[in-house]
Amino acid sequence: MKKLINSPENVVREALEGIVYAHSDLVRVHYDPNYIVRADAPVQNKVGVISGGGSGHEPMHGGFVGMGMLDAACPGAVFTSPTPDQMLEATKAVNGGKGVLHIVKNYTGDVLNFEMAADLARAEGIDVEAVVIDDDVAVKDSLYTAGRRGVGATVLAEKLTGAAAEAGRSLAEVTDICKKANGWGRSMGMALTSCAVPHVGKPTFDLPEDQMEIGIGIHGEPGRVRMDLKSADEITEMLMDPIITDLPYKAGDEVLLFVNGMGGTPLIELYVVYRKAYEIATKSGLKVVRNLVGSYITSLEMAGTSITMLKMDEDMLKLWDAPVKTAALRWGV
Amino acid sequence: MKKLINSPENVVREALEGIVYAHSDLVRVHYDPNYIVRADAPVQNKVGVISGGGSGHEPMHGGFVGMGMLDAACPGAVFTSPTPDQMLEATKAVNGGKGVLHIVKNYTGDVLNFEMAADLARAEGIDVEAVVIDDDVAVKDSLYTAGRRGVGATVLAEKLTGAAAEAGRSLAEVTDICKKANGWGRSMGMALTSCAVPHVGKPTFDLPEDQMEIGIGIHGEPGRVRMDLKSADEITEMLMDPIITDLPYKAGDEVLLFVNGMGGTPLIELYVVYRKAYEIATKSGLKVVRNLVGSYITSLEMAGTSITMLKMDEDMLKLWDAPVKTAALRWGV
User: Fold this and answer.
1) What pairs with residue B196 in β-bridges?
2) CATH architecture of the domain with residue range B185-313
3) Same fold flag, B10-184 and B185-313
4) What is the complex's ipTM, to 2 decimals?
5) Within 10 A of B249 (CB to CB), how many other CB atoms are there?
6) pTM strictly above 0.90
7) Which CATH class, in words, describes the domain spanning A10-184?
8) Chain A residue whose CA is closest to B291
């Protein structure tokens, strides 16, 4: 697998240096331990919101640091949890006296390390809450995970909690928004091709030219089933049906529909998928009131897509529409 | 090559339907002939700005339709010029009485068809100017092109002219901005892997696992040289050197640095490239005052990158920073 890198050991560090050169108006980067933090952190009297996880899912999470979204992001090595000291230092760097929320995707390493960091931060007198995101309906218990995996709902939770924090809400209120975004969000993904971890240098899994994997994880973990490639419409049905029936979403619900690219999928294909996903949602009586189409939570160069649906209420709509100024999501400012 | 589509014949139409479902607050879509137009078109007493070209380069151009950028985009079949009737209808749809600018990438079909559309529109009493973008320093005369190809500078020209039009400038003034963006912009690209046109169903070219192509076009047209894969830093040098020496840019110039993904390249790799490109520009005495990092002019699922540099002056900086509200580029609103 060919990559635009210099060496597997340096890819995260060099990408962070690129981020500094590109976005110093938005963020600062701290090295060793690595974290990306809002240029104006800590914002006094605002709840700090941080997340983190393995690298290789860009723009998540570093691309979401900025006004109205994350205060900091902790990038681990590729597909590897960040360490507790990264999370602890990031927590301290964003603590504006009103507490800090950790948004944690449900992977064993991430959960353990964020728990340790939260304990350490509390020992230093910082009020920390944590919400574990586990929105992937594809599988229970998987490589790297006990329970469901955390995927696309993470992006939406980061936007909503970031807006709530920006609006001056308390740590308990911001935490509640995050729990709601997880509780009301469901996702499922699929892959046409494998990703390849730089230091491994070969595809994570083999997928024959006529096959696809439904229910794949964002690290190339196995999904529900491998089968012959089908049409975009059939694939979209195979993702939407489990999502809709799981919550269950019901006729009359207002939803945000998020069609995500896995990193190697052209945008034109994502709109073909969005078309069918929208039609399925609408035929099910759901009202698609907001959407997001693009590659926001990726798995390196994996070709494929994931769909996330999030039930919305009045308050969440207001938080979604609130201004945001990050490298990857920006509006209203 | 596996794709998330239903059939090669329907991919453009279905993607357009997806765009309607996703972005009806920003755009309307007209079918047969196909064009994407601002929801509020025609805007009276504003110069209309339109572009178009083959599909497969998304988000260009349809993702750039909206306030502060394009008034309309004409998508052809994949990698195929739109027809004169598409351009003519789009021109009429955006004509607010102040004339219409056609931004044309330098490919033979696009140039001929836009010329024909301009003649037809003038015959109907619409004032039309056209600017041909030919910023690719890689090759002179190529498959599909006499002279240099139009690539990344197109995105920047669309932003700048759109802002100029929004500010109420005349057709002559908006045209001048476009000429300046082309005259002061230079680009070069490279590929790690081939794209595959849907109705062909196989890669456009063969590139062995240890090779890359420098100077590639956005349709997979041949570049300058094929060689063994090198490091990201070496590749970035091979792209930046011809760009810098071509204008030539000189010490003290203020520039916008645009690192673009070809469609199948993960964002983390684009930041590794941006890091080196920024360092080369800075070492050359250039001042990088604005940037863009992401996949904005793509070649389906091709893995690779292109770099565009644009010399900026005070006026262009103001136009770049002006509010824009499109599916793919948005700030200030």
Assistant:
1) B203
2) 2-Layer Sandwich (3.30)
3) no
4) 0.98
5) 21
6) yes
7) alpha beta
8) A22
